[in-house]
Specification:
InterPro entries: D-isomer_2_OHA_DH_cat_dom (IPR006139), D-isomer_DH_NAD-bd (IPR006140), NAD(P)-bd_dom_sf (IPR036291). Pfam families: 2-Hacid_dh, 2-Hacid_dh_C. Belongs to the D-isomer specific 2-hydroxyacid dehydrogenase family. It is a single chain. With about 325 residues, the chain is α/β, with parallel strands linked by helices. The chain has 9 helices and 12 strands. The strands form 2 sheets. A 7-stranded parallel beta sheet has the order 8-7-6-9-10-11-12, covered by helices on one side. Strands 2-1-3-4-5 form a 5-stranded parallel beta sheet, with no helix packed on it. Helix 4 crosses helix 6. It starts with a strand and ends in a 14-residue tail after the last helix.
Length: about 325
């Protein structure tokens, strides 16, 4: 019996050569247009920047869907009432960009610690200054909110620099490279200890706005906040106030509530903020890892084995 799967046009050519002979494909573009009849499809894989209109069109045109795989790690944009009522298996691609994100976090920390902006300014001014005070990451304290695959890759690299690594997760348990992990009931107590605070937690109803004014006021005045998760985990008006009034030392922000970041946003021009265009997870290896994950899960699906990265749709990750 043939299995029909719906593949995004952006990745179909890289997946299809590896499919077994009893799997047939239908392609779908970003607007939900199919190149064949999706009526009998059981599996759907979406590409990045999935529009709700496209998702709903796929759900309507493929009534026999059982499993939906997304190339993103975050799934908050998928878990709408329309999607949830279908009761599909949902898997995500958490972990495929973990190395890239972790390296980017280290880049942010070194950028701040080694005063790269000041050094580049001196270069542009053709000014040779001796005695500029640069810091080290050695013995600095890193607090990571979220100890999933991204958080663990960050911790591993930070430990190699001699940092003290603290973590926050829903169910605390010891993990390699972490000196201490606490639960969501204790996380605020660790904020004053952090030289660097990294947000690597999924966006859910519980985490939306968790980095609020109270959290920012609890941080050290020299602390540096790094967000590589979702913009809405942070209360942006409170963060703007914290940065302009000196509650914290600075921030590196790869994600925002509204993207692209509006031209009028004050975050663009704050001297203590490093803005990047949601690119921390970008890597030349990303596509091959996405393909490998999906093919492994497809083999599991065909064999009746448990799938990897199954999303708990009640928790949102």
């Amino acid at each position: 019996m043939l299995l029909k799967i719906i593949l995004p046009v952006e990745l179909a050519a890289e997946i299809e050569p590896h499919l077994p002979s009893d799997v047939v494909t239908v392609h779908v573009d970003s607007d939900g247009n199919f190149d064949d009849n999706p009526q009998d499809a059981e599996v759907y894989m979406n590409w990045y920047y999935l529009k709700k209109t496209t998702l709903y069109k796929v759900l309507a045109d493929a009534p026999k869907l059982r499993w939906h795989h997304t190339v993103s790690a975050g799934v908050n944009h998928l878990l709408t009432p329309t999607f949830l009522e279908r009761n599909l298996i949902l898997t995500n691609s958490a972990g495929v960009n973990a190395i890239a994100v972790a390296e980017f976090v280290l880049t942010f920390m070194l950028y701040h610690t080694k005063q790269i902006v000041a050094l580049q300014t001196l270069q542009h001014q053709k000014t040779w200054v001796k005695g500029l005070e640069l810091q080290e990451l050695l013995d600095k304290t890193l607090l990571i909110i979220g100890t999933g695959q991204v958080g663990r890759e960050i911790a591993q690299r930070a430990k190699a620099f001699g940092m003290k690594v603290l973590g926050i997760r829903r169910h605390p348990q010891p993990l390699p490279a972490f000196d201490q992990i606490v639960g969501l009931d204790q996380w605020r107590s660790l904020l004053p200890l952090a030289d660097y605070l990294v947000i690597a937690i999924p966006l859910t109803s519980d985490t939306q706005g968790m980095i609020d004014e109270l959290a920012l006021r609890a941080m050290d005045s020299q602390a540096y906040l790094i967000n590589v998760a979702r913009g809405a985990v942070v209360d942006e008006p409170a963060l703007l106030k914290a940065l302009t009034e000196g509650w914290i030392g600075g921030a590196a922000l790869d994600t925002f509530v509204g993207e692209p970041l509006p031209l009028a946003s004050p975050f663009w021009s704050l001297p203590n903020v490093f803005v990047t265009p949601h690119c921390a997870g970008t890597s030349s290896q990303l596509r091959s890892r996405l393909v490998a994950l999906f093919l492994d899960n497809l083999n599991r699906y065909l064999s009746g084995l448990p799938l990897r990265n199954v999303v708990n749709q009640k928790l949102g990750y």
